[in-house]
Design brief:
alpha+beta, Butyryl-Coa Dehydrogenase, subunit A, domain 1, Butyryl-CoA Dehydrogenase, subunit A, domain 2, Butyryl-CoA Dehydrogenase, subunit A, domain 3, 4-stranded antiparallel β-sheet, 3-stranded mixed β-sheet, 49% helix
Length: 407
């Protein structure tokens, strides 16, 4: 029998021995270290940084990257790990995503060999925590309008601007900051590939590796959140931050650099959201079996069973979608629009599942003693970041019609 009562389709039977080992190792970590404390951390708005070394020891940081001290796991194994992490809490899954899918992937995909050797082994080991600065106060879904700029001045890059909703920024030792760079400045720095310059285009988005102890770098945690409370998101201010030429990420100028990282994060979200949904359904099943009303358990009522059945059907559909996505990624057949299908569908489904699960708990469901409403609140953020529903809908509309309708 499958490990989870919600696995009506025996999805577990499609997993390999190594995939099951990853699942069980991360699930054990969540059971031991997250579930006993997550209600308090969420209530007190605390990111439990003491867990970060243990996450690194599990090989979670950059686990799907090859070499440089990374675990080198498959895409499917990484997705399974994200499902188990988010069954604990979305905020803690986000830690893994920010570190590995965003900050480390930015260096892995866009950096020089020297940059990779310098940073990735220490980040995989958890000795260096990273963050990823793309979103700005006025540039969320449209990063092409970012106002942060880097100019070449007296043999150095000088960055100025602001970023918002940047995970882990106030505890990170290194930040990947994306900024507009004029072709003239890039040319002066010897960092412009003239073959990539398009007629009429005068600037390009470029990535920079920024030590967070640099003069002029300030990260401030965002407080009074109603979602992702056991997590850490920040505002970043960049005031004439001076960097050496080695700070510039050498490969993939333009938005394809950060978008490649965003797709890694979106992939993990498609799996993670189903972890929050599964935990909510299974918590509701357990509660319904124990809670007596009118002299019998809630689970004995038809209305309750309908809720549980409907939620579990949607859960299994989302899990199968995530598994198909992982298999395609491992096979090298994944196309970007597939990630949008799964991110859009699974976040949307997960929120509805968690909200419906909450109703089975009655008034008790609004406390941190039970997980569904915490998961639902967290998923409001997960649904928004790495592309809103609207953005992924337009990506799919473009795929279906061939007509871009973003503007």
């Amino acid at each position: 029998m499958p490990k989870h009562v919600t696995d009506l389709m025996n999805i577990e039977g499609q997993l390999s021995t190594s995939e099951l080992e990853v699942r069980d190792a991360v699930a054990d970590f969540v059971d031991r270290r997250v579930r006993p404390n997550i209600g308090t951390w969420f209530d007190e708005a605390v990111l439990p940084t003491e867990l970060l070394p243990e996450m690194a020891e599990l090989g979670l940081f950059g686990m799907h990257l090859q070499g440089y001290g990374c675990a080198g796991k498959s895409a499917t194994e990484y997705g399974i790990a994200m499902q188990e992490m988010e069954a604990g809490d979305s905020g803690l899954r986000t830690v893994v995503s920010v570190q590995g899918s965003l900050a480390m992937s930015a260096i892995y995909k866009n950096g020089s060999e020297e940059q990779k050797q310098t940073w990735l082994p220490r980040m995989a080991a958890g000795e260096v925590i990273g963050c990823f600065g793309l979103t700005e106060p006025t540039a969320g879904s449209d990063p092409s309008t970012m106002a942060t700029r880097a100019v070449w001045r007296d043999g150095a890059w000088v960055l100025s601007g602001a970023k918002r909703w940047i995970g882990l920024a106030s505890i990170a030792q290194v930040a990947i900051i994306w900024a507009q760079v004029s072709h003239d400045d890039a040319r002066a720095a010897g960092a412009l590939d003239e073959s990539t310059v398009k007629e009429g285009v005068t600037e390009t988005v470029r990535g920079f590796i920024v030590p967070t102890d640099s003069t002029g770098f300030t990260a401030t945690p965002i407080t009074q959140k109603l979602s992702m409370r056991a997590s850490l998101q920040c505002d970043i201010e960049l005031t004439d931050v001076e960097l050496g030429p080695e700070s510039l990420l050498t490969e993939n100028p333009g938005l394809r650099g950060p978008f490649g990282c965003l797709n890694e994060a979106r992939y993990g979200i498609a799996w993670g959201a189903m972890g929050a949904a599964r935990d909510s359904v299974e918590a509701a099943i357990d509660y319904a079996g124990q809670r007596l009303q009118f002299d019998k358990p809630l689970s004995g009522y038809q209305l309750t069973q309908k809720k549980l059945a409907d939620m579990t059907v949607e859960l299994n559909k989302g899990q199968l979608l995530a598994l198909q996505l992982g298999r395609a990624k491992d096979a090298g057949t994944l196309e970007n629009h597939m990630i949008s299908v799964a991110k859009l569908a699974n976040c949307r489904a997960a929120i509805e599942i968690c909200r419906e699960a909450r109703t089975i708990f009655g008034g008790n469901g609004i406390t941190t003693d039970y997980s569904p409403l915490r998961h639902a609140n967290n998923l409001e953020s997960v649904r928004t970041y790495e592309g809103t529903d609207e953005v992924h809908t337009l990506i799919l509309g473009h795929q279906l019609t061939g007509v871009p309708a973003f503007r």
